[in-house]
Amino acid sequence: MDFKSSLGLIAPEIILSVSSLVLLLVAAWAGDKASRAISVIACFVLGACFFLVAPMVCAGVAGPDAVAFDGLFTADAFAGFAKLLIFAATGAALVIAPSFFDRTRSMKAEYPVLILLAALGMSLMVSATDLLTLYIGLELNSLASYVLAAFLRNDERSAEAGLKYFVLGALASGILLFGMSLTYGFTGSTDFTAVRAALTGDMSTGALFAVIFVLAGLAFKISAVPFHMWTPDVYEGSPTPVTAFFATAPKVAAVALLMRVSLDAFGMQADAWRQIVLFVALASIIVGALGAIGQANIKRLMAFSSINNVGFILIGLVTGTVDGASAMLVYLAIYIAMTAGSFIAIVMMKDENGAPVELIADIAGLSRSKPLLAACLAMMMFSLAGIPPLFGFWGKFVVFQAAVEADYVALAAVGIAASVIGAFYYLKIVKVMYFDEPADVVKGSSDWAHWALLAISALFISPLGYLLTGWLGGVADKAATTLFLVAA
Prior knowledge:
single chain; 2 strands; globular; ubiquinone; oxidoreductase
């Protein structure tokens, strides 16, 4: 493909790059007083990228026509599906931020710029078909995320979160980079197609270590056990809009990247990496379910919920089938809505001075003082627990169905049993809001933008969401099939 055609395929990335640089200059000249205007422009930029990507997802674009720059980048339907989720979640993180930071006058013009740069990195990650592109996208996203985690410079928890994320993120990047170097050493290429061809047949011990190190580095990015240790502290210490961002968009990017690397680059050695993913999935489900039970801070609880949900998503990867990959994408779409809605509700929980309310004990009796907010948060908790008829049940159902059809009945059974355990801490939130004596702490009001986003999330995960199952399943099937066509 010629250079002009390649530029056309990376149009969303070009828009994100140019917009980020222009807005950075505006931030430098206009200062923090322009932060809201920059945030609004950033939302429009993400919207433009969303509508640029949507047609190729619906059309199921794949094959040589989707490949740019001699195999370094692909703009296929699989990447497009992930980008739609990334842009939507990133936009939500931009919308909920200003009112949160305004209380302490800590809203900086650099916030939306960092968010856009992180979105650019994630967009490169999900389209990467070469280890070099993968690493550039991953590091661009990570560097912006480190700064975002420590965005509240006067808050010790935020500074601690940023430092922990940076140190452990650097360790994970080193592990991933070592795995990539081993992969290049044993296959002679960084291109996914060439790596796949080189790993056909019997695998050497060195190549096996390459696969292990690459998967370990990516497991950190999705906060899967045993590389989850950073998640509770970073989720708790980061500003809540940043935590909402971490729990949604980067999660989609990392899971999509893991899918492409496993099913494309290492696709001929599925038996080698399947055992690793199987262990990680089960460990994440169990640790996420048990770790959340004793948490007193709702953001830490959501961190363990994130770990738990990653385990369920990885069940689809264990199958190594098109149905499993499609189920992962459906689960991701529903998970984004549930998690974004949960964190929007958490952002809206403020005391009379506008300070965030994060302790579970402080939301006792919320149903009496803020009945609509409590009802929306309860819906999110029930949906995350996978309780029908809310849409979160469908995400778990399609993943378990794919596992059963691939003869992983025991894995599905363990997942279902762990879902019952995990339901305990979600129902605990509902019990505190509806049946405990009122703590009368949550008194602050929220603006219309928060209510609008919360309403959209609540409608999507409500029983009305089942009206979308045919369309969502069809689009996910096209995206998953595209991934396997590339890998074929």
